[in-house]
User: Which sequence fits this backbone?
């Protein structure tokens, strides 16, 4: 006996006492669905790529975006970022500037020439895609990654669809569009321009395609009947934007009215300013709150001196003078005529009343159904005709680039399944990481970084990009504002706060392990997990 | 080298030569001269290296000693009376932890009534605390027992109390043969702890022990003290070889060869007893004396051997087990069980009352003549007691007894410290 | 580490880290040199698994936090003296020990003195690199061990004493100590009668008393602020002489709080001002931890069963206000809301 009996003990022997037997609840690591991810129409795993960006691993972050969305530089600019609307951080200070980080990553990829390799061996299957807009490009990209052969037929002279012809340059510089499309082409996707499909069935048959994805968009401007003379120029917004894009001289005069309240109306109004109109007035029949255009666009338009006439409809034109009627909102918020009239002098009127889909080439497709001017698709994006899928603006959905990109991905997955005679089932969604799961104490105050905007004088006269990108340090800051809702970000809190040392660190990116031999189930780890990534579950007895 | 020294000074200098590394001091009469002496020896560099710590209480004194001992230092402290009660919890703890601390007790009575003079009530209160208790008979032995105490304590890893009669020894100037440093160094090796708080080999000391092993831990302490019964004579013999004189041992016998009556006592009173024994022997009375040096462990076997053939034993005790009688007599009785020897108790010298030869002669004579009752209070002023009892009977609110009795005697309470 | 320049700024190097600040235990993005001890996978775990503390015990957590920090600060060269109490009992039931440090338990009220003895021994033995930590509960520290504590302070012995304040005698089943707050129910200040719970206007602040000894370092800390706690332990281990750290450690059993709420409750104590977190050098306050998110005292009280009698159908508004006054006084006295003070 080297040491005195009983009163002196060697260290460490309490390991013999397995206190795990006291447990009535056990902590489990979970991944909850962050609200940003939940609200991303493209299904990006935003939290995950922010996690990588936080570490300065921009390429890793970019590649994570590319899993779902092939156009980060574009989306970082034009997406109306519903993710930020869902962001839990909004309840603390401001939402994380997700789009700005995405744009930074997209630009970084272009600058550094990062490319995506086709991950899978060729399948030998061939898919036809009609339309090289965001939806078609997205679908092509995903199919290409899966090893399928893809051909895009595009009616226009350039790829990009609405991204090129509807969104003005000052919001989306064209070299960005070119670069991101080029990257897809380099993956082996064939894009044939100026190839208008007139008879889909015929094209499909002749090309021997195994499946088809329709993504022709909606680019036929809706018209409204307006009694008018010839003194005034009346044109539609899409034509205006298209002509501006082509660099054509558009003569609008001094004072221009824009009729409509969507994003296109605002794009047209802001473009008109840049084309030389001294005054641009948006005429809209409802109020600002009820305007479908994105608030940010309205703000930027106001900044640039665009004027608005709310609760107003245009009745007709006579000798350069537009007759308008004041409207009033009824109980349900619908505009109703008031019988009060007024006139506005203007040199031109731009109609921005929405767009229709050109369905003419679908005449002979068996089974394909059209409803309310759009193509009906199932949950798998397939039309009534087997093997023919559709997405983007031509199917019933919100018409944004983001939704279109999401459609492209979803269609690609379903097409892939179709090609191998299976059905695609989306993985089950995790439980939502709601704000009440966040232990906000742990997050330091960090107001959002504002993106610099171009000075007003230059915005009124040029199509230079208005909103500037983030510097690297700002992008990093912004990424690090992410709360990592519902997903472990390795803050070591659980490892630290366990009074029983029952948690071990498994190494960088491998998170933590729980030693249930010693975990007493006190729940401190779950309570103190900043992001709500630990759940307590009743112990089964 | 013989020197004329105050007991406390002899103890201080001897302790210093034992090279204690941590000394904890808290003053109480009659221990003060010992710790003062040590303070000077540390301060003037004679004893070095040594940490001399002026603690804030006896409880701290023993606690500091516990920490120091567990961390590998030879630790020493001294106390008396109220002090040992104040540190009581730590006294038990030191032995429970098996830490070889050496402590001098300058034996003194315990209050109330507060009293600074000598008796053994203080150390007796700790007789079952697990410490080894050695009682010194002379200043020479008081000094020498400390050397033995350190050696013994460290060898068996138990603390040792050296009990020295307050004033009678601590403040008396006597001729003492002071050991040399070389002698002590050759007798007492450096402290090699059995358990050590060591960062390179961490252990847990002072764990909680439940019913499953508490008895065994206690038994082990007992077992160690039983070992000490063999060790003490051996170390005392070694002591003789090194220092050339007898000190320590389990007990000292005096003229017990053919004795019919033997007086058993602890500490310095044996000097007076021996004088009385000589007088009786001169008269042809077959009487002898034993002074117990090692009261813990209690030398049962040695007593039986030493008292074989004796007819009666008288214990002279400086402490009172109130409600029972003596502290020593019951233990002696147990040692002699079955030997047909009667044991009577004389309570003497409480609170510093002088134990005179004539008083002792009286009671010893009574013993020899078979007239001594089982319990006798030497020189008890029964009248004083009865008058107080009378006052209490007469008046419910008779006031504090001690003060009334002093008043009755016409005495004034002396300076207490 | 930020220097105490104007008597205002003090505290751990708060790495301004927008995602989780320095409030979390670790952060995978931080350089190891500024990581907390607790985030280090090789931390000592001075108090090992298998100890028998209740679920969510703040004292067990606080002790590991503090000792691991002391171990790192001294390159694993500490010796610990422990007072009787929960910490001692739950860590060493025979034949098991949870301690991964040299550790000695002697008595309830003598840990400071035992530590003095250890320090003295180390000094004589020339083991200058080995440092001494003593620890105990509030009862062992502010009540029964108070004499020894004051003695140790007064002699300026080279000991860091850490008090784990769970505001009552827990090991004996929750009885009042002089650290029990006003109004709190314990088994000796039951929640019955006209004025249930602990009497108002009693108790003492041992950190302030420690400061009155003029010792090199006194600090309060909490399990709710690991970085601050570690900073203080590290700072204390960089100094010699008597040092005192008073750590607030909720006890789910005694406080009637949920085991999972231990850190939250401790946080509410800080954020309400009821437990002021500060530090003092040579008797002068040199730093305080600013309240980051002021909450009413009631938020703290309501999280605990021991104050339940103050609420219910007829809330005891007078005594709740009184407790709020105590918080307000702390806030004023220690400048817990002052600008320029680190949070
Ligand atoms: C001298 C003495 N008195 C009383 C006790 C009983 N006792 C043991 S632990 C304890 C309570 C400890 O309270 P505290 O120091 O606050 O530590 P906690 O258990 O709350 O952590 C008490 C009263 C004792 N062991 N020793
Ligand atoms: S009673 Fe309190 S201090 Fe003691 S182990 Fe339980 S929670 Fe910890
Ligand atoms: Mg306590």
Assistant:
């Amino acid at each position: 006996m080297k040491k005195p009996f009983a009163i002196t003990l060697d260290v460490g022997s309490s390991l013999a006492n397995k206190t795990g037997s006291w447990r009535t609840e056990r902590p489990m690591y979970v991944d909850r669905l962050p609200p940003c991810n939940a609200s991303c129409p493209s299904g990006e795993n935003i939290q995950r790529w922010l996690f990588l960006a936080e570490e300065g691993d921009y390429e890793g972050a970019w590649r994570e975006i590319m899993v779902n969305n092939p156009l980060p530089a574009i989306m970082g600019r034009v997406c109306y970022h519903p993710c930020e609307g869902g962001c839990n951080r909004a309840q603390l200070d401001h939402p994380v500037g997700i789009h700005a980080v995405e744009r930074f990553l997209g630009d970084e990829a272009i600058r550094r020439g990062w490319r995506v390799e086709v991950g899978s061996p060729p399948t030998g299957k061939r898919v036809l895609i009609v339309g090289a807009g965001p939806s078609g490009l997205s679908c092509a990209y995903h199919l290409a990654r899966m090893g399928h052969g893809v051909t895009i037929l595009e009616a226009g002279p350039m790829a990009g669809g609405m991204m090129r012809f509807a969104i003005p340059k000052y919001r989306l510089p064209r070299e960005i569009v070119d670069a991101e499309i080029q990257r897809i082409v380099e993956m082996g996707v064939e894009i044939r321009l100026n190839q208008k499909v007139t008879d889909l069935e015929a094209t499909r048959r002749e090309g021997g395609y195994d499946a088809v994805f329709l993504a022709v968009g909606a680019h036929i401007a809706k018209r409204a009947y307006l009694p008018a003379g010839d003194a005034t120029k009346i044109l539609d917004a899409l034509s205006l934007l298209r002509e501006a894009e082509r660099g054509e001289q558009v003569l609008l005069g001094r004072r221009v009215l824009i009729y409509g309240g969507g994003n296109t109306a605002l794009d047209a109004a802001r473009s008109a300013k840049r084309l030389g109109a001294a005054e641009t007035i948006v005429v809209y029949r409802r109020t600002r709150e009820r305007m479908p255009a994105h608030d940010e666009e309205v703000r930027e338009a106001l900044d640039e001196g665009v004027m608005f006439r709310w609760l107003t409809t245009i009745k007709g034109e006579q000798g350069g003078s537009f007759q308008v009627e004041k409207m009033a909102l009824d109980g349900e918020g619908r505009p109703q005529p008031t019988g009060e009239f007024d006139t506005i002098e203007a040199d031109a009127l731009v109609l921005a009343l929405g767009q229709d889909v050109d369905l003419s080439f679908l005449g002979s497709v068996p089974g394909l159904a059209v409803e309310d001017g759009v193509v009906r698709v199932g949950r798998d994006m397939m039309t009534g005709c087997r093997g023919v899928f559709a997405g983007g603006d031509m199917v019933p959905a919100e018409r944004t680039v983001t939704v279109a990109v999401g459609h492209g991905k979803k269609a690609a997955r379903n097409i892939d399944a179709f090609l191998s005679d299976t059905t695609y089932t989306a993985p089950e969604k995790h439980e939502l990481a709601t704000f009440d799961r966040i232990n906000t104490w742990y997050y330091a105050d960090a107001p959002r970084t504002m993106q610099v905007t171009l000075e007003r004088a230059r915005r009124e006269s040029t199509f230079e990009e208005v909103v500037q990108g983030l510097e690297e340090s700002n992008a990093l800051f912004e990424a690090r504002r992410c709360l990592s809702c519902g997903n472990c970000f390795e803050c070591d809190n659980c490892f630290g706060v366990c009074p029983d040392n029952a948690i071990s660190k498994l190494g960088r990116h491998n998170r933590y392990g729980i030693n249930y031999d010693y975990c007493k189930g006190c729940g401190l780890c779950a309570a103190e997990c900043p992001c709500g990534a630990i759940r307590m579950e009743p112990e089964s007895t | 080298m013989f020197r004329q020294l105050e007991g406390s000074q002899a103890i201080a200098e001897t302790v210093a030569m034992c090279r204690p590394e941590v000394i904890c001091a808290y003053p109480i009469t009659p221990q003060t001269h010992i710790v003062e002496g040590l303070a000077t020896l540390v301060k003037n560099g004679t004893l070095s290296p040594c940490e001399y710590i002026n603690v804030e209480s006896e409880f701290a004194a023993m606690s500091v000693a516990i920490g120091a001992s567990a961390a590998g230092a030879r630790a020493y402290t001294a106390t008396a009376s109220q002090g040992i009660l104040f540190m009581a919890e730590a006294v038990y703890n030191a032995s429970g932890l098996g830490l070889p601390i050496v402590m001098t007790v300058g034996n003194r009575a315990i209050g109330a009534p507060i009293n600074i003079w000598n008796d053994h009530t203080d150390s007796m209160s700790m007789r079952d605390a697990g410490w080894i208790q050695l009682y010194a008979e002379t200043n020479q032995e008081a000094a020498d027992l400390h050397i033995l105490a350190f050696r013994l304590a460290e060898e068996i890893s138990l603390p040792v109390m050296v009990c020295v009669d307050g004033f009678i020894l601590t403040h008396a100037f006597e001729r003492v043969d002071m050991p040399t440093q070389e002698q002590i160094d050759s007798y007492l090796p450096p402290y090699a702890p059995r358990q050590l708080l060591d960062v390179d080999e961490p252990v847990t000391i002072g764990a909680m022990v439940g019913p499953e092993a508490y008895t065994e831990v206690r038994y082990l302490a007992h077992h160690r003290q039983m070992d000490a019964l063999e060790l003490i004579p051996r170390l005392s013999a070694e002591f003789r070889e090194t220092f050339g004189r007898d000190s320590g041992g389990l007990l000292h016998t005096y003229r017990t060869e053919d004795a019919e009556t033997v007086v058993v006592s602890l500490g310095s009173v044996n000097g007076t007893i021996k004088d009385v024994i000589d007088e009786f022997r001169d008269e042809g009375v077959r009487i002898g004396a034993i002074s117990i040096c090692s009261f813990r462990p209690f030398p049962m076997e040695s007593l039986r051997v030493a008292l074989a053939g004796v007819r009666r034993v008288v214990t002279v005790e400086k402490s009172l087990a109130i409600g029972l009688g003596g502290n020593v007599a019951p233990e002696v009785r147990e040692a002699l069980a079955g030997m047909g020897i009667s044991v009577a108790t004389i309570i003497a010298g409480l609170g510093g009352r002088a134990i005179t030869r004539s008083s002792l002669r009286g009671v010893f004579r009574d013993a020899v003549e078979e007239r001594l009752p089982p319990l006798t209070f030497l020189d008890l002023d029964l009248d004083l007691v009865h008058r107080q009892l009378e006052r209490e009977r007469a008046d419910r609110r008779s006031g504090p007894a001690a003060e009334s009795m002093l008043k009755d005697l016409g005495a004034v309470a002396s300076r207490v410290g | 580490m930020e220097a105490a320049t104007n008597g205002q700024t003090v505290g751990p190097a708060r790495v301004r880290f927008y995602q989780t600040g320095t409030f979390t235990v670790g952060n995978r993005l931080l350089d190891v040199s500024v990581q907390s001890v607790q985030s280090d996978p090789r931390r000592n775990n001075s108090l090992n698994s298998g100890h028998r503390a209740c679920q969510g015990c703040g004292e067990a957590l606080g002790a590991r936090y503090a000792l691991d920090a002391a171990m790192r600060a001294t390159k694993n060269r500490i010796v610990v003296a422990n007072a009787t109490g929960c910490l001692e009992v739950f860590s060493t039931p025979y034949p098991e020990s949870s301690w991964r440090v040299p550790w000695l338990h002697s008595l309830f009220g003598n840990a400071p003195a035992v530590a003095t003895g250890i320090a003295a021994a180390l000094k004589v033995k020339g083991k200058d690199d080995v440092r001494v930590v003593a620890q105990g509960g509030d009862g062992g520290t502010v009540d029964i061990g108070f004499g020894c504590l004051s003695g140790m302070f007064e002699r300026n012995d080279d000991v860091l004493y850490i008090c784990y304040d769970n505001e009552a005698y827990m090991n004996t089943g929750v009885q009042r100590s002089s650290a029990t707050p006003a109004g709190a129910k314990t088994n000796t200040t039951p929640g019955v009668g006209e004025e249930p719970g602990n009497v108002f206007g009693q108790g003492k602040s041992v950190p302030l008393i420690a400061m009155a000894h003029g010792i090199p370092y006194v600090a309060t800390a909490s399990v709710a602020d690991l970085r601050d706690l570690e900073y203080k332990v590290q700072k204390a281990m960089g100094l010699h002489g008597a040092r005192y750290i008073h750590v607030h450690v909720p006890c789910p059993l005694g406080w009637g709080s949920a085991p999972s709420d231990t850190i939250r409750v401790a946080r509410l104590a800080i954020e309400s001002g009821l437990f002021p977190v500060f530090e003092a050098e040579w008797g002068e306050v040199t730093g305080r931890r600013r309240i980051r998110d002021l909450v009413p005292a009631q938020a703290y009280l309501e999280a605990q069963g021991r104050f339940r009698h103050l609420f219910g159908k007829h809330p005891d508004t007078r005594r709740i206000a009184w407790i709020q006054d105590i918080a307000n006084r702390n806030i004023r006295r220690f400048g817990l809301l002052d600008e320029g003070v680190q949070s």
Notes: Chain A has a mean pLDDT of 92. The two ends of chain A are 43 Å apart (CA to CA). Residues B 89; C 59, 84-87, 108-109, 136-140, 144, 166, 169-172, 177 surround thiamine diphosphate (ligand 1) (CB under 6 Å). DSSP finds 18 helices and 22 strands in chain A.
